Amino acid sequence: MNHHKVSIESVARVVMALGLDGFKKLSSHMPACSVKYAGFTIGEVEAILNILGEANIKRMLAGDVTIEIKELIQKMVDKNGRFIPLVGSKNYDCNPKPDYKLIQPDINYAERFNKAAKFLHNAIFVSAEEYQKRSEKLIEQLQNDPMFSNLLNGVWLPVCYPEFRVSDYKKDLFGYFLNAVTASYALQIPGRYFNNYIKVVFPGKIKIVDESHERFIAKMAKGPLVGLQFFPFQGFSINAVRELMSILPKSMYLSGPIDFAVAMTIHPDILARDYFTPCYDCSAVSWDSSYSTYFVATQESLRFDCALGFGNAHSHSTSSLIYLG
């Protein structure tokens, strides 16, 4: 057979002359023949040639170059450090509002460690040196992870979490962790204060609703931890965040108010410097089943509050993610 001498243009001319239906009908009356790659359409062949490029094809046929095939890894995080919404998800997300943003600081590990030790009284932490060592190790791990390395393009904060056994989530949150936020915020952000609004106005129960947060709380009970805190969900509804968390690796944990209170105690100047920082959904828990909890910087204060529902997406809100490696 001499079909290998027939050009794509020649085939296209015949199809154009006969029409596609006529060409298929004529082909169906022809005797069967043995041909390589019979399942490929001319369109698919053309697509491959477009990828390679005419000049490269000619050089390859001449033996001047070779082609190397590499597997493409689908990234889950975009170039700005935000998770890419799941295709086909029915949960709502919207574009983030750029006015509400965080600014990546230069990290002075000793200074940040001292804040944790000062305001989280009688807590057991790793050493300041270990805090920096583990944080840098986590950064290195992510840099070498092609699927999640873009997280480092967004704002990240190293956090040292104390060893702490949570026996009553609400009691421990209100009686210990938020007290640390109160003292840290007032001292480090002059003229502003912390307002536990939810405690005064909305008495209720806190329930962990995310499996990764259950694991995080269990890990914290066994010993002090070091993690990187990310904010890659701005514009995602809480339901969209929880859906995405279900497919993330076990090294990643959804933030609740206890761990976020630790981050806020250490980094109040970054997380709540003024009104134009994001609202932080604590998506790993619910308040009286129907409400979500959040931290938000208002015009005059940092407020801990709750909101009805989990399905709405807000351009200024983000959930937080912890990476423990």
TrEMBL record:
This chain belongs to the protein called: Uncharacterized protein
Q: Which domain of life is it from?
A: Bacteria
Organism encoding this protein: Candidatus Falkowbacteria bacterium GW2011_GWE1_38_31
